[in-house]
Specification:
Elements (H helix, E strand, L loop, with lengths): L1 E3 L14 E2 L15 E10 L8 E8 L4 E7 L9 E2 L2 E5 L2 E5 L2 E2 L3 E2 L3 E5 L4 E5 L10 E5 L2 E5 L14 E5 L4 E5 L10 E5 L2 E5 L9 H4 L2 E5 L4 E5 L12 E4 L2 E4 L12 E4 L4 E4 L28 E11 L2 E10 L7 E10 L7 E3 L3 E4 L1 E4 L4 E4 L2
Antiparallel strand pairs: 1-12, 2-29, 3-4, 3-30, 3-31, 4-5, 6-9, 7-8, 8-11, 9-10, 11-12, 13-14, 14-15, 15-16, 17-18, 18-19, 19-20, 21-22, 22-23, 23-24, 25-26, 26-27, 27-28, 27-29
């Protein structure tokens, strides 16, 4: 596993990432677990019509409610953005797996970032290049399944593979019963779940509402009908207290409430106290304030991702401040839901303003800090 040099941070937009906002929303006095960070990769450009785009790694500290710039993601095609990749953590390392660069390639490359030493390493490549696939960590190994292996709109693949982090080696797994792409991967009850996803125009509706579950001990797949229940793939699914948690699908990333899965009834139902209608409102009264306290340009939501730490669910939203085309700002706003509380579960932290446009490239992941 060879180390690679990340581009110098002095040449990045790190000095503008982020700065304090003029808005005031009270920050909770309660502190989350201090030894975790929420990491995400963003595309960054200084203004809307800028052709110079870079991929940057950011880390959110849930204790201080701050975003910190980590570094540029190495190995990127100049002024191109990586999309459709998976991002997971094992110990102090974050893995960026596969993905695609539009009009360029589908990647098999795997990168590892050590959050302690701030070093990047090149890992063994995927056996099958893929993007928009399911990925999760189970028993210290990284499992991937499904996705698409070309840029020509092909239906997808049913292949799967597992990565041994200690051996730096990918091993092929049995094929799933059907092709799936834009499916979601999650580890639950000790098994790798591949939930929902598109299965191609010729496949029956029920396949898109189902899940494939891989038993890591017996090395076989089981098919669970109706586990997702929607024809549209899920946006993101996480686990808290051994419960599957979802907040929306690919077309409607926030449904106004958090949902959890009942295995006995094979259905999703709303989590008590989770309704929040204005979580993603494009106006949501979070207009930029000037020095006189007056509102100026409105906001346009450009991204949302969800992270689980302990009993908390963090919703990280990004809003473009619509205004002068020659310059732009991104407003970062974090909501937190406490699944263990009996009332007042929602908190909204103080917004943070970032110069330039910062758009999410993939869902975030949580890594343990020293």
């Amino acid at each position: 596993m060879g180390s690679i040099t990340s581009p110098s941070s002095s040449a990045t937009p790190s000095e503008k990432f982020p700065r304090s906002s003029l808005m005031s929303v009270p920050l909770s006095n309660k502190k989350s677990e201090p030894s975790y960070g929420i990491y995400a990769v963003f595309s960054y450009k200084e203004h809307l019509d800028d052709r110079n785009v870079s991929c940057v790694m950011g880390c959110y500290d849930p204790v201080t409610n701050t975003w910190n710039h980590e570094c540029l993601v190495p190995g990127m095609v100049e002024n191109c953005v990586l999309k459709g990749f998976a991002m997971v953590s094992v110990g102090p390392s974050i893995y960026i797996i596969g993905g695609y660069v539009d009009n360029v390639e589908v990647r098999s490359q795997v990168l590892r970032y050590n959050v302690v030493t701030k070093e990047w390493f090149m890992c063994a490549s995927l056996i099958t290049p893929r993007h928009n696939f399911a990925c999760s960590v189970c028993d210290g190994k990284i499992y991937v399944a499904g996705g698409q292996s070309t840029l020509d709109g092909a239906m997808g693949v049913s292949s799967a593979e597992a990565y041994d982090v200690s051996l730096n080696e990918w091993t092929p797994l049995p094929f799933m019963s059907t092709i799936r792409y834009k499916c979601v991967g999650v580890t639950w009850q000790g098994r790798f779940h591949v939930i929902g996803g598109f299965t191609g125009n010729k496949m029956p509706f029920m396949d898109r509402c189902s899940a494939e579950v891989y038993d890591v001990e017996n090395k076989k797949w089981d098919h669970v009908r109706g586990m997702w229940q929607l024809d549209i793939p899920p946006n993101q699914i996480v686990v808290i207290n051994n419960k599957l948690i979802s907040s929306g699908d690919c077309l409607n990333v926030w449904k106004g409430q958090i949902e959890t899965y009942d295995q006995d009834l094979n259905l999703w139902y709303p989590l008590r106290g989770s309704m929040k209608n204005n979580l993603l409102s494009s106006s949501c009264s979070l207009n930029k304030m000037n020095a006189d306290g007056q509102t100026s340009e409105p906001l346009e939501r450009i991204c949302l991702t969800m992270a689980a730490i302990g009993s908390y669910l963090y919703f990280m939203a990004g809003y473009r401040m619509v205004g002068d085309q020659s310059s732009c700002c991104t407003l970062s706003l974090v909501h937190r839901f406490d699944t263990s509380a009996m009332n007042n579960q929602w908190e909204t932290f103080e917004p943070m303003q970032v110069e330039g446009e910062r758009d999410l490239c993939s869902h975030c992941c949580v890594a343990q800090l020293p």
